[in-house]
Design a protein that fits this description.
This protein has 337 residues and is mainly α. The chain has one domain. The protein has helices at residues 4-35, 55-76, 83-107, 117-120, 126-130, 151-170, 177-195, 199-219, 228-245, 249-255, 257-268, 295-307, 313-334, and strands spanning 38-40, 49-51, 137-140, 144-147, 278-279, 285-286. The strands form 3 sheets. A two-stranded antiparallel sheet has the order 1-2. A two-stranded antiparallel ribbon has the order 3-4. A two-stranded antiparallel ribbon has the order 5-6. α1 (4-35) runs antiparallel to α2, α1 packs parallel to α8 and α3 runs antiparallel to α9. It is globular. The mean pLDDT is 92.
Length: 337
């Protein structure tokens, strides 16, 4: 069972990730502006330019905290517990960040198509596949509890990680949205890991949540930095990593329901539609022309009917965060193991 010292250590590593990301994100904002790595804020009437690829600060802050964790295990506690899994999780995160950062700075130049981008994320699954992480027994429809054997690392792990990385990347584009949803989902998985005795995994989870909180300080409305695919790929992949290492796939599926809905809605436009709203004179966001092609569009369409005005950008984010918190509560009650 977790002890008080475990909790103190968890808080210390999380604080390390938060503080490191706060410092690194501020530094990255200056660097990105200097080199012209900026993008338009499409949900603002003035289409202001904002530094891109800020997820690099999140990756760096998280990595520093995890290295501090590994240092403590090796030199303070004189152990080697779960170091293989910890290094695999860190490697997957770094791969996701590298692929996302490459997409942020080169994707638009070389004209990557929507169907090509998921292929780039396949290598993220390699670290967990090669160590055969997780439990190969899965509940399958009509088959019950089935041992997938070698198919688990070769098929199930890549599908889970690639699907989560790309799914999380779909529901994005609003100030603070990706970081806030990441904090809620990863913290929920971290809590479950801690409660079931996976203390080392909980420390990884709350290190990521702490780094996201530090990034959110600059990414909240009005954003001073955008996350880019650097953050969305890495956070989505890391959610899958946590679920696999902690055998929390059922919970992760429930928490990912908004992203499944986003996938179905995106299919209506053959993945051509964007999530953005149309800036209105009242400072809110109107529903863009065309079909409802995003979960965000549903909120934009319903808000005037319910409240007689357009939704503010931060209100759209708030609705989605509240919906995710409801799913967290549901998941904790429905999934007992």
């Amino acid at each position: 069972m977790p002890t008080d010292s475990d909790m103190l250590f968890l808080v210390a590593i999380s604080a390390c990730a938060l503080l490191a990301t706060l410092v690194l994100a501020k530094f990255w904002i200056r660097v990105a502006r200097k080199i012209g790595l900026e993008g338009k804020d499409m949900n603002k009437a003035d289409k202001r330019l904002v530094p891109e690829a800020g997820g690099i600060a999140f990756i760096a802050g998280f990595s520093l905290a995890v290295m501090a964790f590994i240092f403590s295990i090796t030199f303070v506690f004189k152990g080697d517990g779960n170091l293989l899994e910890i290094f695999a999780a860190l490697t997957a995160m770094l791969l996701a960040g590298f692929i996302g950062f490459t997409d942020d700075i080169l994707g638009w130049k070389i004209g990557l198509r929507k169907w090509q981008k998921p292929l780039l994320t396949i290598p993220i699954a390699i670290p967990l596949a090669v160590i055969n992480a997780g439990d190969s027994f899965m509940e399958l429809p009509f088959l019950g509890n089935t041992n997938l054997g070698i198919l688990y690392p070769l098929l199930a792990i890549p599908i889970g990680i690639v699907g989560a990385a790309n799914g999380f990347n779909m529901l994005a584009g609003y100030n603070g949205l990706e970081a806030a949803l990441g904090i809620v989902i990863i913290s929920a998985l971290g809590y479950k890991a801690y409660a079931t005795g996976f203390v080392w995994l909980a420390i990884l989870a709350f290190a990521a949540a702490g780094a996201l909180l530090g990034f959110l300080f600059y990414n909240r409305y009005p954003a001073r930095v955008f996350p880019g695919d650097t953050l969305t790929y890495s956070v989505g992949a890391f959610i899958a990593v946590l679920a696999i290492l902690g055998n929390m796939q059922k919970i992760a599926i429930i928490l990912f329901l908004p992203f499944f809905a986003e996938l179905l809605l995106k299919m209506r436009s053959r993945f051509r539609a964007e999530n953005f709203g149309t800036p209105a004179k009242d400072g809110g966001l109107g529903m863009p022309q065309g079909k409802v092609s995003s979960v965000t569009h549903i909120i934009l369409k319903l808000f005037p009917r319910l409240f007689g005005r357009n939704a503010k950008e931060y209100e759209v984010v708030g609705v989605l965060v509240i919906a995710e918190l409801v799913l967290v509560t549901l998941a904790m009650f429905v999934v007992q193991s």
